[in-house]
């Protein structure tokens, strides 16, 4: 059992790694009503090519299977686990990202009972042909809902443009066609491989007693047997540094066009502190270039090229990384021209210390604000941990950044040849 | 449970909530007036103009820089419809200085800035700065148009227009796109002066603060003119509501993959009523949670939808059902949804549905008040409804609801309008 204190933040994190490899973290939040817990596996939509646990041959599985598995784990022989949580006054949910699948609940009542339900339902799969078939209708409607959502289409379209091979370009839910192929045996095979405790993190945040909760989880796990932990082999094809496609236009029934542009990261293979430093640097730079207090933002807003929907972000993990900027815009082509021009102009001038400090202050403030949210802490801590980073390093790393660091990412990341554009335009009738 | 104190100052009510839970201090200003055709668009525009510049920081860029300097304080203005009211919410959140390594006095500066946003806007001559008004008009128009692009929001908007065709509640909280251009800076400024003079203004301050200190600061920074008087005649009574003789059914077709089914019910019960708690429980059992009748029957049993849910508007007294379905399944889905309502009228509510719902509502309230904005919203219900319920009383009210109470409410709840956005069913074409 370990403990880490973060004096500046007035937080203490308790943790333990159990004999089966499961990592458990508990953050005490006194004064809150809510306890929030996430049970997350390091397995998402990109993990479609791997060596199944205990087998010699690699397999490729249908698109959307990680997400399908997420849906199906809720169903048990006795019915739906959602109901068990509701009976216990908790609300449960789950989500699948490119490389994580998280199961979670929040409650203001009996934490231990709900925690047992969470751990046990994730660790006791129950799939039948019949229930797998039934789910195809529901997920089919989920896919169609996203198909009608222009924000999702333009976001995903941009990622598709960037990648030649990397499975990050495959929609997380798959397609109606790809999910039609999923069988219960596929689900078991993925489950066996990726839901081993050594590939998972349990995070609990709330008004709890950390030692008591850690012992409780230990006790639960000691009553179950698991296979020996094995290193999971995942396979990815070599991905070129160039983008697969420089522009795509999707026609939909919208009134305002949408435009996103992005830069593909050439060397997305960082881990730990190096990754954190890089991510924070690019995000800080984006804030300086296009944040609400920047001259560029003012210009773009005044010219009517952006509105309140404009946003930007950089993310990197597991072999892919990209920045993206965009939102609703009346003139998508002009938007691209102006933004890329502004990026090029930024490269020509030296970084101003004053705006660097201001942007950094803003980012630190935003981070403190997000620590009010138990959901943020649990979800982000887990994402960071899977990439060998520690969420509570964010402020010190921000404080250690220098103008030199952002100058470096400015020159290396924002390259013309790494840029791509995706637009949603009004359908011509 | 919540240390909530109110202080009436000349011009506004200050609500302070002292708590050590957060690493930030939150300010929430609520400015309320009944929604009406004449002012709805102006009021929306006003909210965005106010957050775009002050006397000291007369452009968005300067104002945003000042916020960044306050360790990334956030400021945003937004609009909502609470019953028959159109409420402007101006929210600001600043880091608590004790967590910053070089401790700076951010709180006083924040207070000053917030008061300036409301009371000392950026002017040019005697009216709002033309440049700001122009930009915000464009942005507001785009925002109104974007509702069309989000099919769920669009269907919801259309349902309200059809269902409340002769009531102010039909109005979109962001106003009418066609009217935006015609609003002049002068006209907007005149309207602003009316708002500052007559509207009901409440300020919530939540964080590791002291009430006395906050009240002092408010008195120092927020100065209203002597003739300020909340217009009492503006209070709206939503009780006399239309009776339904026939359900309205509206169809519209668009090129979408999934049909959007939205149904509106009148409940004849609002926040101020005694059977409000029973309505809460009704909505929970009907479609509020993942154990609800709609979720279980439309999604789990029939696989017709990914989502099938209901929500209610506390101050208007309405329940809205929404679901995304295959166009061909319209009849089937509507039939199942109507059946669930019938079941509830007939008292077919299991003990576990009933108890689970109460437990979930209890959980939901406790979770909501963990968040500063959620907490202020829960407390603001009292202001809107003219009630004085503590959170404890609220939870006690839910506890006391019986199945018979829920059945009685279910019988009052009446379907008014169905809006269905039908899919023509082809995919968006991709080309380069």
TrEMBL record, chain A:
InterPro entries tied to this protein: Metalloenz_LuxS/M16, MPP/UQCRC_Complex, Pept_M16_N, Peptidase_M16_C
One of the GO biological process terms: proteolysis
Keyword list, A-Z: Hydrolase, Protease
A single GO molecular function term of this UniProt record: metal ion binding
Domain Peptidase M16 C-terminal: 181-362
Pfam families cross-referenced by the UniProt entry: Peptidase_M16, Peptidase_M16_C
SUPFAM superfamilies registered for this protein in UniProt: LuxS/MPP-like metallohydrolase
Residue stretches making up the Peptidase M16 N-terminal domain: 63-175
Entry keyword annotation includes Transit peptide: no
Domain of life assignment: Bacteria
PANTHER family: METALLOPROTEASE, ZINC-DEPENDENT PROTEASE
Protein name per UniProt: Zinc protease
UniProtKB/TrEMBL annotation, chain B:
Signal peptide: none
SUPFAM superfamilies assigned: LuxS/MPP-like metallohydrolase
Keyword Phosphoprotein attributed: no
GO terms of molecular function: metal ion binding; peptidase activity
Residue intervals of the Peptidase M16 C-terminal domain: 182-359
Keyword Ribonucleoprotein: no
UniProt cross-references to Gene3D superfamilies, sorted A to Z: Metalloenzyme, LuxS/M16 peptidase-like
Pfam families: Peptidase_M16_C
UniProt entry keywords in alphabetical sequence: Hydrolase, Protease
GO biological process: proteolysis
NCBIfam families assigned to the protein according to its UniProt record, in alphabetical order: YfmF_fam
Name listed for the protein in its UniProt record: Zinc protease
């Amino acid at each position: 059992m370990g403990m880490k204190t973060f004096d500046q933040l007035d937080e203490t994190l308790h943790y333990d790694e159990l004999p089966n490899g499961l990592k458990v973290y508990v953050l005490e939040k006194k004064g809150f009503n809510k306890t929030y817990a996430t049970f997350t596996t390091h397995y998402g939509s990109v993990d479609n090519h791997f060596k199944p646990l205990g087998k010699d041959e690699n397999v490729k599985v249908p698109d959307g299977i990680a997400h399908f598995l997420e849906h199906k784990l809720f169903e048990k022989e006795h019915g739906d686990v959602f109901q068990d949580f509701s009976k216990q006054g908790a609300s449960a949910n789950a989500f699948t990202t490119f490389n994580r699948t998280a199961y979670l609940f929040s409650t203001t009542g009996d934490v231990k009972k709900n925690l047992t339900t969470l751990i046990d339902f994730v660790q006791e799969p129950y799939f039948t042909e019949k229930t797998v078939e039934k789910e195809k209708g529901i997920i089919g409607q989920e896919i169609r809902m996203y198909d009608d959502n222009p924000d999702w289409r333009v976001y995903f379209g941009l990622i598709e443009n960037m990648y030649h091979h990397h499975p990050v370009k495959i929609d997380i839910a798959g397609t109606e066609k790809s999910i039609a192929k999923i069988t219960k045996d596929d689900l078991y095979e993925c489950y066996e491989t990726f839901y081993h405790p050594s590939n998972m993190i349990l995070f609990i945040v709330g008004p709890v007693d950390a030692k008591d909760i850690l012992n409780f989880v230990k006790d639960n796990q000691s009553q179950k047997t698991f296979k020996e932990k094995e290193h999971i082999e995942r396979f990815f094809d070599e991905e070129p540094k160039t983008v697969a496609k420089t522009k795509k236009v999707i026609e939909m029934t919208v009134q305002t066009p949408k435009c996103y542009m992005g830069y593909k990261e050439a060397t997305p293979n960082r881990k730990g502190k190096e990754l954190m430093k890089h991510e924070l640097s690019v995000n800080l730079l984006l804030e300086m270039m296009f944040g609400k207090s920047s001259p560029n933002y003012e210009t773009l807003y005044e010219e009517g090229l952006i509105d309140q929907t404009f946003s930007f972000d950089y993310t990197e993990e597991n072999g892919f990384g990209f920045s993206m900027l965009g939102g609703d815009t009346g003139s998508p082509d002009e938007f691209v021209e102006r933004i890329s021009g502004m990026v090029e102009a930024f490269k020509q001038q030296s970084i101003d210390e004053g705006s660097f400090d201001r942007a950094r202050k803003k980012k630190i403030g935003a981070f403190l604000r997000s620590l009010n949210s138990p959901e943020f802490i649990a979800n982000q801590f887990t994402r960071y941990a899977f990439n060998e980073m520690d969420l509570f390093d964010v402020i010190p790393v921000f404080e250690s950044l220098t103008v030199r660091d952002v100058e470096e990412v400015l020159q290396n990341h924002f390259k013309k040849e790494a840029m791509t554009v995706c637009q949603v335009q009004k359908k011509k009738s | 449970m919540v240390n909530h104190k109110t202080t009436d100052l000349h011009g506004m009510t200050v609500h302070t909530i002292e708590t050590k839970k957060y690493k930030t201090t939150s300010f929430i200003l609520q400015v309320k007036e009944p929604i009406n055709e004449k002012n709805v668009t102006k009021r929306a525009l006003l909210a965005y103009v106010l957050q775009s510049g002050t006397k000291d920081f007369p452009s968005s860029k300067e104002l945003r820089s000042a916020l960044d300097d306050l360790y990334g304080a956030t400021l945003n203005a937004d609009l909502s419809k609470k019953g028959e009211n159109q409420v402007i919410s101006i929210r600001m959140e600043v880091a608590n200085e004790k967590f910053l390594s070089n401790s700076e006095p951010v709180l006083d500066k924040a207070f000053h800035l917030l008061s300036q946003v409301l009371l000392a806007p950026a002017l040019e001559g005697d009216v709002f700065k033309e440049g700001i008004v122009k930009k915000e008009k464009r942005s507001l128009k785009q925002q109104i148009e974007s509702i069309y692009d989000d099919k769920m929001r669009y269907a919801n908007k259309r349902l309200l227009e059809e269902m409340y065709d002769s009531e102010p509640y039909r109005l979109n909280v962001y106003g009418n796109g066609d009217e935006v251009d015609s609003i002049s800076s002068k006209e907007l400024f005149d309207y602003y002066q009316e708002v500052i003079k007559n509207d009901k203004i409440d300020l919530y301050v939540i964080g590791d603060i002291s009430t006395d200190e906050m009240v002092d600061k408010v008195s120092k920074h927020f100065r209203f003119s002597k003739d300020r008087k909340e217009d009492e005649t503006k209070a709206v009574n939503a009780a006399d509501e239309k009776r339904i003789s026939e359900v309205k059914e509206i169809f519209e077709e668009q090129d979408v993959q999934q049909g959007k089914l939205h149904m509106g019910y009148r409940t004849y019960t609002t926040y101020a009523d005694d059977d409000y708690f029973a309505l809460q429980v009704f909505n929970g059992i009907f479609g509020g949670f993942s154990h609800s009748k709609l979720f279980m029957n439309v999604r789990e049993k029939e696989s017709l939808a990914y989502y099938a849910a209901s929500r209610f508007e506390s101050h208007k007294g309405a329940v809205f059902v929404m679901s995304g379905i295959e166009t061909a399944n319209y009849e089937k889905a509507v039939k199942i949804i109507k059946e669930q309502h019938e079941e509830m009228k007939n008292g077919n509510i299991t003990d576990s549905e009933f108890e689970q719902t109460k437990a979930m509502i209890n959980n939901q309230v406790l979770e909501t008040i963990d968040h500063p904005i959620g907490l202020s919203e829960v407390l603001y219900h009292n202001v809107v409804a003219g009630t004085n319920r503590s959170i404890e009383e609220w939870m006690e009210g839910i506890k006391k609801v019986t199945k018979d109470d829920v059945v009685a409410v279910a019988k009052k709840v009446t379907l008014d309008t169905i809006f269905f956005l039908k899919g023509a069913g082809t995919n968006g074409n991709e080309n380069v």
